[in-house]
């Protein structure tokens, strides 16, 4: 029956949030950058492996070489773009 207005909180909860200056998830330090780089390098190797497997499959099916190159390069570029634009890695 009663609706709470947006932002209408109990004053006690609002004060509690304002006093606590720490973020919800604490910082992990400088090691995070190194881990991220290693994970991206390993994942990039996986992208190259996917491209190699795709080329081998298409090559065994007697597909023209230019189509193999076009398909593999397109897939690898898209996967690499997704990988390197990810903020979670």
Please describe what this structure looks like.
- By secondary structure, this protein is mainly α.
- The protein has a domain at 31-89.
- The chain has helices at residues 11-19, 31-60, 65-85.
- The longest helix is centred in the middle third of the chain and has 30 residues, at 31-60.
- The chain is elongated.
- The two termini are 46 Å apart.
How does the SSE layout of this entry go?
Elements: H1 11-19, H2 31-60, H3 65-85
Key structural traits:
elongated, single chain, mainly alpha, 89 residues
Computed structural class: mainly alpha
Mean pLDDT score = 79
Portion of residues in beta strands equals under 5%
Distance between the termini: 46 Å
Shape: elongated
Q: How many helical elements?
A: 3
Query: What is the helical fraction, as a range of percent?
Result: 55-70%
Query: How many strands, what sense, and barrel or not for the largest sheet?
Result: none
Parts with pLDDT < 50 across at least 5 consecutive residues: none
How many strands appear in the DSSP assignment?
A: 0
Write the H/E string, N to C: HHH
Radius of gyration: 25 Å
Quick overview of this protein structure:
This protein has 89 residues and is mainly alpha-helical.
